[in-house]
Design a protein that fits this description.
single chain; alpha+beta; Alpha-Beta Plaits; five-stranded mixed beta sheet; five-stranded antiparallel beta sheet; 10 strands; 29% strand; Genetic competence negative regulator; MecA_C_sf
Length: 202
């Protein structure tokens, strides 16, 4: 579990699938009202307080992004939204109960980060040789190269093979597409694998 402060009232938590499995939570459980998920959220908030001094008292807006190869990104924003203010009741709330407004988004985009461009070249040649894909987008972001791929037409076998190859050379990243598009630099908008193989030898 990695926690990062985005602003004074906003944090980002990255959960790997191992983090979820260790707690007996399936990916689909994240949008169910079950005790395990509440325990996980309490644990995340305790860690956020200990590491960053983030106080999670009061209403919280929680956004959960499911990423296919990487895990889950949870964005927690502290403060009242207008809908929460109008929905407030006079019931006494336990201090340990978090008022949460949860929104869930599922992203099927596969995203891997590479430290060296040589690794990007190597994995591109492997992907092309295995006839897995010649597509993909290439970004530069904070000194790393990021390759992103749209899902392979619900073909789970090919998707698993694609992820396995990418994982040999790079690291799964907790970035969301929105962050990458806003702060990253787009190098190749489409056909990145074919383009790289055309211009660079492995």
């Amino acid at each position: 579990m990695k926690i990062e402060r985005l602003s004074q009232n906003k944090i980002k938590i990255f959960l790997t699938f191992d983090d979820l499995l260790e707690r007996g939570i399936q990916k689909d459980d994240m949008w169910r009202e079950i005790p395990k998920v509440h325990e996980l959220f309490s644990e995340m908030m305790d860690q956020a307080y200990n590491e960053l001094g983030f106080d999670a008292s009061g209403p919280l807006a929680v956004e959960v992004f499911a990423l296919p190869a990487q895990g889950m990104v949870v964005i927690v924003t502290r403060g009242k939204s207008e809908s929460q203010q109008s929905a407030d009741t006079e019931e006494d709330q336990d201090e340990d109960v978090y008022e949460m407004e949860v929104t869930l988004e599922h992203s099927d985009v596969i995203m891997y980060a590479f430290r060296d461009f040589e690794d990007v070249i190597s994995v591109s040649h492997q992907l092309l040789q295995a006839k897995l894909t010649e597509d993909g987008r290439l970004y530069s972001y904070r000194g790393k190269w990021i390759l992103t791929f749209d899902p392979v037409n619900s073909d789970q076998g090919r998707t698993a093979a694609l992820i396995a190859l990418l994982a040999e050379y790079g690291d799964a990243t907790s970035l969301t597409t929105a962050v990458l598009e806003e702060y990253g630099k787009l190098i190749m908008a489409s056909g990145a694998v074919a383009e790289i193989c055309t211009h660079f030898q492995s």
